[in-house]
Amino acid sequence: MRPQITCVDIRGDGTTEYFVGKHTTASRSVTRRCTKGYIAFIISTSRLCFLKDYWCLRLPQHRTELSVYKLLYEKGVKYVATALGGGLVGTQQTVTQDYLPGEEVPAELFHYRLAIQELARPLESYRHSEELIMWLFDGLQGHEEAWTKAGILHRDISPANIMSVVDQDDETDENRRGILNDWDICKYKSEMNDEPLKYPRPGTLYFMSALSLRYPRKPNELADDLEAFIHVLTYCSLQF
Question: For residue range 48-73, what is the model confidence (pLDDT) as tens digits?
């Protein structure tokens, strides 16, 4: 990645330039989304933010993550990450699917970036059980509001997607709150009965519901996400 990049603002009325360095997080897989995370410097405001770089589906029924955040904000959903902008990276797209035999081939993927205002810590960085419960509860509230106000189901509840954040100007680091991020494989309530996207099973294996593991072809439902929150709490409690 070049050190200076440009992304379209979430309002769609301009662009913002960022400086980035070496990635701070990266997927070990050479397939699927291949997500990388960067600490980015916003040139116009001299503030830091988080930049997510990954590959996502190119299908008519698939919405970009930035459009999902727009809807969440329009509906007044709280306890979710704050998107600043993003968009396609040129015309970069996969061609592997064109050379695979058979009818069940993967969907085309395109290169995408998303800038997030918050510099967040993973849920597993909690210092005591009170913080764990508070941040997890904030994430649960964000999930509830996304479903009831915007009709959006997250579908990938895991410790990596429930983060804790604090305002960059708060030097005490005491007023942290939880947020729910990574909405790139969410689904709208109106689409719950549609054919599944050509994508591997949504969710993180360790935190998927028992029914989802027992019946892999079962569509994700609200109950599966709620059960995942329980598994996240159990996992963090036992691990630490």
Answer: 999 999 988 766 666 789 999 999 99
232 strand-pairing partners: none
**DSSP three-state, residue 134:** helix
* Amino acid in position 126: Y
The span from the CA of 44 to the CA of 126, in Å, is: 33
99 Cβ contact list (under 8 Å, min separation 6):
none
Residue 233: count of CB within 10 angstroms of its CB = 17
Tell the residue number behind the tokens 């600490």, with chain if given. 39
Q: What's the DSSP call for residue 107?
A: P
Q: In the chain, what are the helix, strand and coil shares in percent, each to the nearest 5? A: 30, 30, 45
* pLDDT attached to residue 231: 96
Rounded Cα gap, residues 166 and 120, in angstroms: 8
Rounded mean pLDDT, 153-173: 81
Q: How many CA atoms lie within 13 A of 25 on its CB side?
A: 14
- Give the C-alpha separation, 231 to 234, whole Å: 5
From first CA to last CA, the distance across the chain in angstroms is 36
Contact (CB, 8 A) for 94 and 105: no
The pTM of the whole model exceeds 0.70: yes
Average pLDDT, the chain: 87
